[in-house]
Here is the input.
Amino acid sequence: MSMTWLRNNLEANRLPAFIRFHDIDRQAGQPLVFSMRWMALIALAAFLPTGSALAQTVAPTAPPKPVKTPTQLPTPTAEPENPGAYAPPAPRELEGPSAADVGPVQKHFVRDSTTDDLAETEVNDNASLKIQEKIALDKRISVPLIHDVQNDGSYSGGDNAALQYEITYLNWGAVTQEQLLARRGHYFTITWANDGPKADFTARFEYREVKSKEVVRTLTQNMPGVSGATRSYFAVTDKAYLAYGPVVSWRFTVLKGDTVVAEAKSFIW
Here is the structure.
């Protein structure tokens, strides 16, 4: 921009409206005299946009967020005493495995699963051998089948699926090693029949084991209202089996009252 242009515009008063000057205190025909400082300001104002363009939209400032003071935590207190809530687990019964360890199959068997005092057992159990029992064998009551299985890991059944199933059936539901040990034992399934009138009987199983030698132990099962074929289940399992071994000789008797009406026994009884 030349000074001539600025002077001509000043004299003709053709500057923008917001910087336009009016002749107030000068004589006609006499030019205005400005210092160099004012000339620079006026030259800058000539190139500025209009007043409307200078207006800038300023976003309203959001009020400052209140500072949250940390909440004071309550003073920790000791947990109230409740002896029942943290009671130690109940100790396992020493008499035998629990119902969960025994399994659903073994519940049908009359079992001996605990160890005992051999001297006392020999006195109590063997004393029954010296008693003269009443024997009146009834031909209408028979014992046609005695089936035994040793579930101790040594019996595999070979390639016979039916024999393999017996072991699988006895161990069904066992997951832990403890449960498998509780099912280990010698199982007897005895089939017998009453072809006479319906009556109440007692099935008795006497047996000797390998390690306890001549000690005789006895298991009994009440059989009410027997008519036709039925079965009795006996087993030596768990701690008794591990301590004394499998059954080496046995005798099965059916009693009606105090009278033996049928019996079956092993060859070396």
